Amino acid sequence: MSGRSARGAGRAPLPSPAGAAGYPGGMPEPRAFRDEPVSFVRRSGRMSEAQERAFAELAGFYVLDVPRDVAWTSVHPEARLDPAVAYGRTAPLTVEIGSGQGHAIVAAAGANPERDFLAVEVFRAGLARTMLDADRDGVRNLRLVEANAPEVLSTFLPGGSVDEAWIFFPDPWHKKRHTKRRLVRPGFGATAGAALRDGGLLRLATDWEDYALQMREVLDDAPEFERAFEGEWAERFDGRVMTAFERKGIAKGRDIRDLTYRRLARA
Question: Model-level pTM?
Answer without folding.
Answer: 0.84
